[in-house]
Amino acid sequence: MTSLFVLGSGSLGNALAVVAGEEVLLIDAGFSAREIARRAERVGLDLRRTIGLVITHEHGDHTAGAARLAATLDIPILTARGTWDRLRPRMPKVTCIPLALMGGVRHGGFQIEACPTSHDAAEPVAISVRSAHGHRVGIAYDLGRPTAGVRFLLKESDALVLEANHDEVLLRTSDYPAVVQERIAGSGGHLSNRAAAELLAEVVHPGLRAVVLAHLSERCNSAEHARAEVAPVLARHPVALHVAPQHEPMAPIDLG
Questions:
Q1: What is the pTM of this model?
Q2: Residue 181 to residues 8, 175, 177, 226: CA-CA distances in angstroms?
Q3: For the segment 222-238, what is each residue's pLDDT rounded down to a tens digit?
Q4: Cβ distance 48 to 254 under 8 Å?
């Protein structure tokens, strides 16, 4: 069986896990190691079975607990070389396995593929994880614009974790300064609900079983706004639509 665990997602922290058989692959560690352990225990995720930690980019809401988790669990970090250059100074005892951009790396029973995104980080990536059971989970957040590479990476996924960061009207009427609004909405920022729906319309297919809308802004979005924009795209498909909360983990999503 392959399962997707979303331990929390938003500007205050992001952490996911894909579980297949006896192996756990973590994706991002944007909460403290203690908080990740607490959330994992709450949903029955055994972190002792973790074989690696994939990091999408170096920002703190994706790496806050990475150093301690990697050291405590004695696991490598899998990330792009540019990201590792930023992380290495604070992780002297951690091993890195470089991700092959537009290529694949096998780690345990997982095949991990990555492609660059346009976010304002050193070398950010979207990833696709295929388990030994053949199930594929695509993860794409913190991307200002969905590139052709991201679209290709997410095709044929069984489950998608997709950014729906902001409602465009709520962003423009927020109390954020204009320069911050431009950064969020720009090509190096975050995906809006509308852009998420457009991307999903391109990659939805009969085998897609679950979509998790992630990285929602607490100031410029809501679960209701995100669902209202994305749900029509899935109306003709039997896909479970979830919205990832920031402050608590989701129940695991079983992919079979």
A1: 0.96
A2: 24, 9, 6, 18
A3: 999 999 999 999 999 99
A4: no
- Please answer whether residues 210 and 161 qualify as being in contact, where contact means their C-beta atoms are separated by less than 8 angstroms: no
Q: What is the DSSP letter of 252?
A: P
Strand partners, 111: 130
- In angstroms, rounded to a whole number, what is the distance separating the alpha carbons of residues 34 and 17? 16
Pair 75, 24: CB distance under 8 Å:
no
Distance CA 225, CA 234 (A): 15
Q: How far is the CA of 3 from the CAs of 61, 87, 91, in angstroms? A: 23, 28, 29
- Give per-residue pLDDT as tens, 131-145: 999 999 999 999 988
**CA-closest candidate to residue 195, choices 137, 249, 150:** 150
- CATH architecture observed for domain 2-244: 4-Layer Sandwich (3.60)
Q: Say which residue the tokens 């489950």 belong to.
A: 159
